[in-house]
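Task: fold both queries, return tokens.
Query 1:
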Amino acid sequence: MKKIRFFENENIYYVRMEKFTITFGRDEAISRFLREAFSVNGSETTETVNAGGGTVVSVETTAGVLRTVLSETVVIFCKNKVLSKAFPENRKGVLYGAFMGALLGQEFEDEKETVCFRLPESKDFNIDGIFTFLLADLDYSWRALGVLANRLFTQCRDEEDIFALIKYFLGGEILSGRTLVLDDGIYYDDNNEDLPCARVTGDYETDTALNLLLRKPTEIIVPMPKKYSNELIGIIKRLGE
């Protein structure tokens, strides 16, 4: 453990840095998300493989940052896994990514708070164990959301219906009141805060649409729209109508 001193108006503030480990079944998408999320907060991660073949991510950071990043990781990836099981067909495409982002965004901030509250006081965390033993009620609500979403999605006849369904789910949520900028990544316009992107599908633009909708922005700015497909830009424009 080490402390970093900050000086402000002749006062000294100490930030306590500690070493933590996060273990999970090997998943490059989770590894990448953790690297990006901790990097945004000024910390680097290292990875090893344990005897069981799982990934162990080590990081030196503050307890507050650790719990914030871990809570967001658990909600995004565990919730996506549960919701995906509700869609037996292998659906693909940018519009489907936007739809899944809208679902993941349901109760997102409240769910992160729930996970953060339930995390044990520890230096070592296991994502699979947290989900299995601490989040049974969230698992149940995510399954119910998946059943409802799949039922409604299968009734969609065309893209117009899917757009209406996305807006239906967004309509029940409070938007963040913030503007997102899409420019080789996603960041907030007001403070230039970079956001880690969950690459859950492996397709760049599908995942981009998912992450944009997950954050529930009030506005999306794309400085260089030619960098992206007409489909993705078209979805962003339609959401603003």
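Query 1 returned. Query 2:
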Amino acid sequence: MSSTGTPDLSAIADPRLWRLALQIDSEALRAVLWSTVEDASLIRFTLPLDPTLPPAAALEEAVYAAPVLLADFAAVDVVLRTRAYLLAPSPLPDDCVRRMLKYACVASDSDVIRPSAASRGDTAVHMAVDADVARFLARTFRNPRVHSHAAVLDRYFGSKSALGNSGKVYVHFHQGASLREADILCYGPGGRLAIVTTHRCDTDDDAVYYIAATAREAGLDLASDEILLCGNQQLRDSVMPKLRRYASYVMPLIFPSAAFRVGRDALNAPFPLIILPLCE
């Protein structure tokens, strides 16, 4: 089931037998719910965020417009889509990470610094979260697990990159109401993450440039290393033939078959939310 706005969720008789995953970006709150005891149960819907309000106020308005989100679920995961992150050793003191994020011009003194475990135990994706948003999530949901979208992608892709002798570039496309972004993760031979970055791509040529430039910056070879695309299908299918002019191996990522347990509509849900259970 999918919708824009709040759907009829009368089928959820006991929320404690369901999981909730939320993806929050600058434009919308995207929700995915599924039963822990029944297959093919996935429900997804999207609530727009009011761009005229501060981020926390817009989020609060959207959440309270969908009372089902406040139910007592078995688990709640929140994925924040933000470019205010960086990959760095872990653990590091918050003050050190804050200085690094401020140097990159993506954090302020009032932001909350949150590390999200990366695919290797000695690194983390450190992100800056608006303090009011962090407080709202903490008081609204029971023990929510808050993740950077980049860390979720890395935990999944990193587990796929350890085998083989070639480097790999994974590109996840996000399409919002007006915002198009590409998450680019580069792994060297052996599966060590070299670069993770998110770029706004208003055109296909922007995407091709950022993908090729990031791969080269990571020391990968466009003639022999793999580039695998996933996420928004329209963007993927549009960028792929243009990218193949410059790289020898460009293919769509095979969608994880295990994700279909919750229903075929998993194909249309936000990819970071669908792979979350596969990273546990």
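Both queries returned. Flag for query 2: The radius of gyration is 19 Å.
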